[in-house]
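REQUEST FORM: STRUCTURE PREDICTION
Request ID: SP-0412
Submitted by: Lab K.M.
Chain count: 1
Length (residues): 367
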Amino acid sequence: MLEFTLKRIALATAAAAALSAGAASAQEACTNYTVTDGDTLATISIAAYGTSNYQPIFNANRNIISNPTELKPGLVLALPCEDGSLPNGQSAQELIAAEEARNASNRVSNVYEPPIKIVTGGNYAPFADEDLTGGGFLVRLATTALNRAGNSRDYSVSFVNDWSAHLDTLLPLGAFDVSLAWYIPDCSNRSYEWSEETNKRCTQFDSTVSVYDTVIGFYTLPDSEYAKARSFEDFKGATVCRMDGWFTHDLEENGVYEPNVTLLRPVTATECMDAVLTGVADVASFEVQLAADAMSDMGLTPNDIVENPFVNTVAGLRFVTHRTNPFGRQYVAMLNRGLNEMRESGEWYAIISDTLREHNEKLTASN
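STATUS: Completed
RESULT:
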């Protein structure tokens, strides 16, 4: 089962704007902002965009932010424009067009090589969706990477919405070569007891470099004792809510797992948020994008449920191949070469921001 769900950039609310008005009035979209003492990515995002979803700022500054909870005063952040482009830079469309032109003359090998068979799932915009340009940004990143950094490889893309079948059946049997995209744990870390799922992902699959890093937040009531937890150790004894089917290796790595905590596993993010509101759970934990979306859907403001400013994790979505595939590691190497070049050229960010722009325009038109 795919761990990420449909995420939307939360719409600005009057309450959020009021919360941020006095705190960080200098932050504006489409500018460069110098961090001051007391700033967090969430407060900057609220001031600049009216939403606590700071994932777009994290995306734009991934090269200089390693831990979202540790912003040092003096750090200069690029705050993306409303269309996703960076201040004082080319638009996403201009950069993508330039890279396409630069790579148009890639030589194709005279030796026949079968198309690489890619599988993903639909209806998960902006990540993977047949109604978006190129099938969503994960698909666009994968297919573009196969024609960058000296690669020149044909491919086919299929959408299979039974996500569990990707890892359980389709890749092991060779029906497809590459699946997009999965959270893979740090398989070099054996300092904790691996769950069955963690063991499976580390022993049966090879994966690319991280394609897209997402911030996983921890959300509580404002007056909860866990709202000011300074470390994962402080969550011991809590009831933590994370949706059924989602990865838990980041919790396992940090000791936030049974029996140290009680883990609640409902189906949706809104159920987790409701569990916190009603006291059934102490903490809800999932992506900051999804949290902003769930709060918007429920009519909540940052005054109702707060993100812990000291504790979070960063998880990377990766493209995977099965280890029984004789060409799997070759495909991983090709994708890595292309992805690394795309990050250096800016095309990686341009594709993500261009897809987010398209997705947001569709959402606005449908409202």
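NOTES: The longest helix spans residues 347-366.
Reviewed by: T.R.
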